[in-house]
Amino acid sequence: MRPFVRLSTVVRLGTLAAVSMSCQQPPTTAATSPIPAAAELLSPAHDASRGDAAKASAPPLEPSEGVRPPVAAQEPTEPDGDGARDDPGPRVAPSFGHFERVGRHWGSLTRICDLQPHGAGLYAAHATKPLGWDGASITRYAPDDKVAFSLAFDWNRPGEPSKGGGAGQGFLRLRSLHDRLFAPDADPPYLGLGVRSGIEGYVFVSDQSGRFAQSRRPGHRPPRAATADRAGVALVPDAYHLFDVIEYQGRVYASTGARGPGDSAPGALMVSTDDLAFEVAARYPEAPGAAAWRLTYMVRFQGALLTGVEVLGGRGPDYVRWEAPTTDVALMADHATPMYLTPSGGRATLRWYAHGRRLYWIMAGALGVQLGVSDDGRGWSLVSLPEGAGAPLDLAQFGNTLVLLTEYRLLALRDPGHLIELARLEAPSPFALSDHYCAAPLAVFQGQLYAGGQRKGELYRFVPEVSGRGPGEP
């Protein structure tokens, strides 16, 4: 397939912007350091991403400017997290080991962006260069089948004109909701194929067995609309880029960059209707100006919905916290609270992971890619990683241990300040972070820990070593 570099949304709207994220090494001691307290965060002295002149001229943010009053607390209607839980496997602590290559399907692309167990299979979401080059597929690994790897869904649309983007440009997340798989298309062909509304995005929905409806011919059109008992597509009107889907307070939401009034490009939360189509629930911000905004990856935590933010041609908060006063209403713009760790904001979310009473946040900012931990989703501490670990990528519950995958280590987190090495990877690591939209994922399937490769779309499995203790093992 010939790669096609698509003009971004901001170019279409006349806004030229570049997003730059460094990948510096995190601190080298295994400990946590608090992010400055809220009062300190409202001081320009902590704005490390702006020049001295900007620091001197920028007035301190008042709480009413940066943070809205919190919504009254309510009992969460769903567990914290982003969807179905993995099977954590046997309730024993993992020992030191190594990763071994399991294999790949011929339909695998360069990167595995997410892994989702479903039934007897482990599904992998693939991309080549998300939001940049054509390439989107989903593969399935079922070790008990005669042929372990199969192609679950192909959105590469071979043979279609590539000008304007002939195929989807990546699946970044796979979610298991109501015993069905939901796969949002990160960047639709030609800004949409005009099934319903011209510019439109697509969420592909499986049936309960995990089977996806295939594209229709001629023209590799999206499948028929999904229904309560049939696989198909859920249409998302006016969506440029779909990042994630999640259930919150009994409704399914999709996060996206969207077409707004005039030529504006706000981020948006789309809510699913009863017929498995989506409509706009809330735009963020309501006045985006000339910048192009996107709401990215999502998580539920302590009754709130948290969404990452990306802004091209401007600067936005680090993330947005959404809370509706009751479960009777869908989320609206008034339910959004922008969250800033510094006055300049601008952190990009790579992943969220809720575990027990804590929320972990893998973020990219001026100091590189870092791991934050919070007990309320508002105040954060940084988890320092061992020297040589590289950037944090994903977390998972494995046995009775929370494990963290980094570019060059697998670490056990006994608590945020106590990390134990379980595996070491030498360069070139198959999990090296080269695209911030797609960090190597972890998943536990049939009691074993798997990780997704970033160079050949290969699946890897962690193999504990029975005899002896490895480096860093107590």
Overview of the structural elements:
The structure is a single chain. 50% of the residues are buried. The model is unreliable at 1-31, 35-76 and 467-474 (pLDDT under 50). The protein is globular, with a radius of gyration of 21 Å. It has helices at residues 9-12, 38-41, 52-57, 63-66; strands spanning 32-34, 97-103, 111-118, 121-127, 136-141, 149-154, 175-177, 180-184, 200-205, 232-237, 239-248, 251-258, 267-272, 278-284, 292-301, 304-312, 319-322, 336-339, 348-355, 358-365, 368-374, 381-383, 392-398, 401-406, 409-415, 418-424, 442-445, 448-452, 459-464. β5 (136-141) and β6 (149-154) form a beta hairpin. The strands form 7 sheets. A 5-stranded antiparallel β-sheet has the order 1-22-21-20-19, with no helix packed on it. A 4-stranded antiparallel β-sheet has the order 2-29-28-27, with no helix packed on it. It has one domain (9-51, 73-464): YVTN repeat-like/Quinoprotein amine dehydrogenase (Methylamine Dehydrogenase, Chain H). The longest helix is centred in the first third of the chain and has 6 residues, at 52-57. It is built from 4 helices and 29 strands. It has 474 residues and is mainly β.
